[in-house]
């Protein structure tokens, strides 16, 4: 038995399912997860000595690759001065200034520790600001594991085929209305029929696989929100500081009222944020009545890792990452076509769909061949490729992908597809 498998057996005795977050369990691909020992750049080593090309990057944060020397140095330097104070620090101020400077929709920002918290607080703030109770979310978008957002959510919730989750009061779920991505008709109806505080969405959904937004979609959403007095909340936990320095809002020229950030902004440490218009953010405690708090919010180590990461993200960086991503698309799309698969990409996020054309929304994602995806995933892992273990997830590329890695990816995908379909 491999060391990973024996660790999984032990883990299952003391951690539900053996993992600290469900998708890591590889249930959707009928496999067992390798246990990771270390990472450098875009490579990881598992405890059995296998070398894996990491196509997840910790589900988004590791845009610089693992163990980037500048990030590690800042974390070490900061750690030597103390790891948590629960009191204000200068670095938090500088960080907030840097974030507001970088993102077109941020006048003010509040730090927290996870994407779940960021969207949870953003929707409470939207409700507190507007005095309305309904929320609209998009089918297949995932905004973290809190009650209001676990309704028709993507990612792990979709992976496990649960429409929501037991434990969420029906009365709470009833306040979350849903609508398909890339379409505004149902959103318009909801806005007409209910008192809606906010419309929340991933501008580029990554939690039902990567879905490309239609032209004009965000402008229509903005207009509808204005017409009905609802806030437009863009969840940039995946896209923030990834699709551009100003995230999806910069890339697609979105005028959001509130934005949730996570992943890249924390440089691989537990940090997230939400922010937006000054008048809305001014309703937050202690300035205003909407309560929100966190013991480890603005944690010095996380702030140090986030700032060190953001410092390296300039125009040149994004150009290079786009070039890497385009090159990967150019190399693997012809292979995918041979096997009737499709490919969707926005910047450094992409998904291989086991379906002839890329889906436009969650209903179309459900038409994928999930069995073939599972087989592909297992074969790809044998080729040293660590793809996300679910059709409902996106690949996140990092800047360290060079020609050796792209070659490894191309060869591995070719062999894994052949093994999936030719036997
Ligand atoms: N929003 C989006 C778009 C996400 O992808 C995620 C996590 N994958 C979250 C929110 C929740 O973030 P976290 O896992 O840090 O709580």
Set out the fold topology.
Elements: H1 3-14, E1 36-40, E2 43-46, E3 51-54, H2 69-79, H3 90-102, E4 108-112, H4 115-130, E5 134-138, H5 155-159, H6 170-173, E6 176-179, H7 185-193, E7 196-201, H8 217-228, E8 231-236, H9 247-251, E9 258-261, E10 272-276, H10 278-281, H11 300-311, H12 315-338, E11 342-346, E12 349-353, H13 362-365, H14 370-382, E13 385-386, E14 395-396, H15 403-421
Helix pairs in contact: 2-11, 3-11, 7-8, 12-15, 14-15
Given helix and strand content, the structural type is alpha/beta
First CA to last CA: what distance?
Answer: 26 Å
Outline: globular
Mean pLDDT: 96
Q: SSE order in H/E notation?
A: HEEEHHEHEHHEHEHEHEEHHHEEHHEEH
β-sheet strand percentage: 5-15%
Low-confidence stretches: none
**SS element count, helices:** 15
Q: Biggest sheet, open or closed, and with what strands and sense?
A: 7 strands, mixed
Query: Bound compounds, please?
Result: 4'-deoxy-4'-aminopyridoxal-5'-phosphate
> Total number of β-strand segments?
14
Helix amount, in percent?
25-40%
Q: What order do the strands of the largest sheet run in, or round the barrel if closed?
A: 4-10-9-8-7-5-6
Q: How large, in whole angstroms, is the Cα Rg?
A: 21 Å
């Amino acid at each position: 038995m491999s060391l990973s498998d024996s660790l999984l057996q032990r883990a299952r005795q003391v951690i539900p399912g053996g993992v600290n977050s469900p998708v890591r369990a590889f249930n959707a691909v009928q496999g067992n997860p390798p246990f990771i020992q270390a990472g450098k750049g875009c490579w990881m080593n598992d405890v059995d000595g296998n070398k894996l090309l990491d196509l997840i990057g910790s589900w988004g944060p590791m845009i610089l690759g693992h163990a980037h020397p500048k990030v590690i140095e800042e974390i070490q330097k900061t750690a030597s001065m103390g790891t948590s104070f629960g009191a204000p620090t200068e670095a938090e101020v500088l960080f907030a200034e840097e974030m507001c400077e970088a993102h077109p929709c941020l006048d003010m920002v509040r730090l927290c520790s996870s994407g779940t918290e960021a969207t949870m607080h953003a929707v409470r703030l939207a409700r507190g600001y507007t005095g309305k109770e309904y929320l609209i979310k998009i089918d297949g978008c995932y905004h973290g594991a809190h009650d209001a957002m676990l309704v028709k959510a993507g990612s792990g919730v979709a992976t496990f085929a649960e429409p929501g989750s037991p434990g969420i009061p029906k009365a709470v779920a009833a306040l979350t209305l849903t609508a398909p991505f890339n379409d505004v008709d149902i959103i318009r109806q909801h806005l007409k029929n209910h008192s809606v505080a906010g419309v929340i969405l991933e501008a580029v959904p990554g939690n039902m696989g990567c879905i490309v937004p239609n032209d004009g979609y965000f402008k229509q959403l903005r207009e509808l929100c204005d017409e009905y007095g609802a806030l437009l909340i863009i969840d940039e936990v995946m896209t923030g500081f990834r699709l551009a320095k100003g995230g999806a809002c910069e890339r697609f020229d979105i005028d959001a009222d509130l934005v949730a950030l996570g992943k890249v902004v924390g440089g691989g440490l537990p940090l997230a944020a939400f922010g937006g218009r000054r008048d809305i953010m001014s309703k937050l405690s202690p300035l205003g009545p909407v309560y929100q708090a966190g013991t480890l919010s603005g944690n010095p180590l996380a702030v140090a890792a986030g700032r060190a990461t953001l410092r390296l993200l300039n125009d040149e960086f994004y150009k290079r990452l786009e070039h890497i991503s385009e090159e990967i698309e150019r190399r693997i799309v012809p292979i995918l076509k041979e096997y009737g698969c499709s490919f969707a990409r926005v910047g450094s996020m992409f998904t291989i769909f086991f379906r002839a054309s890329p889906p436009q929304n969650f209903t179309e994602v459900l038409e994928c061949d999930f069995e073939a995806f599972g087989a592909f995933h297992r074969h790809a892992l044998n080729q040293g490729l660590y793809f996300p273990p679910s059709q409902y997830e996106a690949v996140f590329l990092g800047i360290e992908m060079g020609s050796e890695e792209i070659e490894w990816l191309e060869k591995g995908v070719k062999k894994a597809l052949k093994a999936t379909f030719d036997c």
